[in-house]
Specification:
CATH architecture of the largest domain in chain A: Up-down Bundle
CATH class of the largest domain in chain A: Mainly Alpha
Strand content of chain A: under 5%
Helix content of chain A: over 70%
Distance between the termini of chain A: 47 Å
Shape of chain A: globular
Oligomer: homodimer
Order of helices and strands of chain A: HEHHEEHHHHHH
Largest sheet of chain A: 3 strands, antiparallel
Structural class of chain A: mainly alpha
CATH topology of the largest domain in chain A: Four Helix Bundle (Hemerythrin (Met), subunit A)
CATH superfamily of the largest domain in chain A: GntR ligand-binding domain-like
Largest interface: A-B, 32 and 32 residues
Number of domains of chain A: 2
Chain lengths: ~220, ~220
DNA sequence: TTTCCATTGAAAATGTATTTTTGCTTCGCG
DNA sequence: CGCGAAGCAAAAATACATTTTCAATGGAAA
């Protein structure tokens, strides 16, 4: 194999977590994962340690690893924070972006637009999730603050964990494609206020779509 | 020992890194660290993996781990971001803090005020660094956004790496104690604007103190 | 003399085995 | 019949051995 085993496991486990393939709070048994990926426990532990620092999994000393929990409160907090950071990034990207940035945004939007959203199981298709993340990343990428981008990436990753919950209630009545187009057009027009407004609405609407489904899931668990 | 070996190594390595005991870019040999802490290489690897995700060390596949680099550009970026986040936290803490918060702030300030700054080697004393971190943490702690606090902690940790560089140029001509007192008083007076102004000045002054020393260190390395 | 290739050594990555801890179950006692 | 303690099994943590990879040095050829 080209990359190291730890790296491979880390990346695969990460996309699985972001895609919601493991239930929050679910126990992540090291030996099970080891046989699933057919690598040693050491590689698994190392990957899990990195994911722990990222906050995607929680480590309980002597008691193993679990998938990080989700909650309505966390979603709201996360959304608020995302609006803050994403809009700041966007403003700086618009002020700072060159032609290459514009081209990358257009390219990413095109890929996103032509990728079907739905997967066979009713959730988002993996390729759409990827294209969606790439589009938002492309928008922010021209921001000239490495720290801001880094925090943005962290927040965006955590947001992805909530995304697949949205699909169940989001029966096509939300025109995400329209929102993405508006974002791109405002960015290319170099209209910061319009772009920020679009971004704020977009992120807020994501929360509004996810929250009911999440709330239902929470009460289901209790009852 | 009570905690796990990995946890112990992680914590100790972290404070060592924040205290600047390892030179930036320095190689962190796993076997050396293993014998130094007298634990196996596995525990070291796991601790380093977590620190990598935190950004305090960088991992190069098949080439081991290094202490994360520092630079003037990073310091400026970091400072800008810190001002954004710390002031936001502070506003929310002031709006949200109760009596327990006030008490904690006063207590932390007292500990900070009575702790001598200088260590024997001319750098900051470890106890002062701890008290300083605790004071700033206490100020922010009443902020009712877990994500904001988390990002704040991350940024503050990285800032600490630069702190010891400041000591060399900071020949007592900066009245840090005065700045901390002003911060506390503004917070207790529940005056957000005054507190934010004090915080902005405080963080900016830290950068202004560090940057010359850092710039000199950088040119020294090249020359 | 310089450059390129090969060999060698050191260090990291991985895999396996052992120890320790924890949580559960069962058995005994009240 | 219920509560508690002890033992047992599963899983995590750690130590150790093996394999792989990278880099540096030395030698040979141009």
């Amino acid at each position: 194999m080209s990359a190291s085993a730890t790296q491979t496991v880390y990346e695969q486990l990460r996309v699985s977590l972001l895609a919601g393939q493991y239930r929050p709070e679910a126990k992540l048994k090291i030996s099970e994962l080891g046989s699933a990926f057919s690598v040693s426990t050491g590689a698994i532990r190392e990957a899990l340690a990195r994911l722990t620092a990222e906050g995607l999994v929680t480590a309980m000393p002597q008691r193993g690893f679990r998938v990080a929990p989700v909650s309505v409160a966390d979603l709201r907090d996360l959304t608020e924070m995302r609006i803050e950071i994403e809009t700041k990034c966007l403003r700086r990207a618009i002020a700072n972006g060159d032609l290459a940035w514009e081209a990358a945004v257009v390219a990413a939007h095109h890929r996103l637009a032509v990728t079907p959203i739905a997967a066979a199981d009713g959730g988002f298709s993996p390729t759409w999730i990827l294209a969606h993340g790439d589009f938002h990343a492309a928008l922010a990428r021209a921001c000239d603050s490495a720290w801001m981008l880094r925090v943005r990436d962290l927040l965006f990753a955590h947001n992805e964990r909530y995304l697949d919950l949205a699909r169940k209630t989001d029966r096509g009545n939300r025109d995400a494609a329209r929102e993405h187009r508006e974002l791109m057009e405002a960015a290319l027009a170099r209209d910061p206020d319009r772009a920020v407004a679009a971004m704020t609405a977009h992120i807020g609407r994501t929360r509004d779509t996810i929250e009911p489904a999440l709330r239902r899931a929470e009460t289901d668990e209790v009852g």
